[in-house]
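Query form — protein Stress-inducible protein

QUESTION: What is the three-dimensional structure of this chain?
INPUT:
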Amino acid sequence: MEPDIITVGLDGSSESLAAAQWAADEADRRQSVLRLLHAWILLAAEAPGTPPDRDQNAGARQLVRQVLDAVRERHPHLQIIEDLVGAEAEPALLRAAGESQMLVLGSRALGAWESYVLGDISLDVVGRAEGPVVLVRAPGHTAAAPAERPPTVPDPRVVVGMGLTAPCDGLLAFAFDAAATRGLPLQAVHGRPLPVHAYAPWGVDPDAEATVVKEAQDDLRAAIDPWSGRFPEVTVQLTVLPESPARAVVRTAPGAELLVVGRGRHRHALAPRVGPVAHAAIHHVTCPVVVVPHD
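ANSWER: The structure tokens for Stress-inducible protein are given below.
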């Protein structure tokens, strides 16, 4: 791993340009190197000094150079690497994810069914990558099914979705660091569905609901407290909702500058899996979403 490199995958779309701008901002914030990566299996191997009129990769170079010029306007002093890779996009991106601090990709506004039918390389990479993957939408693009918005949108913050069923140190390390580097508060969200006995003929038993929420708050606080000690400058808000973890994260995300969620490493799975929380976030949240793999 090269911790000082942030890689963004480019494909010429408006989403990948938005991803590049986000990655450039992040690289500038972290004083990292930005790598602009474009992978295409038909890129030709050419000797140094090939005349421009014989450059078979001219189109690919122009694609990367256009993004480079756009990024330079906002970050004239940022160190940038241009990387053309003659390979299929997915393996090239997976390799880059293992070599970088994070991999940043553009995200299309597709519904779940559309993604499964059309194929979404971002989703495949997220499900297999060894490092954090950030998905960024193009400006003005909405989610597949907009989340319910609260009456008033909260102040900017970093939101982290917590499952509490497995160790999540990598997830919390990324979330706290992201909040600290931005000077923003961190909102830790946990959704816990009510058990069957909490429902009465007239509706939800308020005492049973209060008990479930209190237990969840205690569990969430126990997971967060050690990290609050390591990042005393980060203000933390704990949020527990009596519903599924995926729905809780989607409902809490509006107004966030960044949403951080985790996924388990399914090393022996035949197909990539991102899990229900990450899947819901990718399809229904409009802010940048970071998916952090964990054991």
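ADDITIONAL NOTE: The first strand starts at residue 2 and ends at 9.
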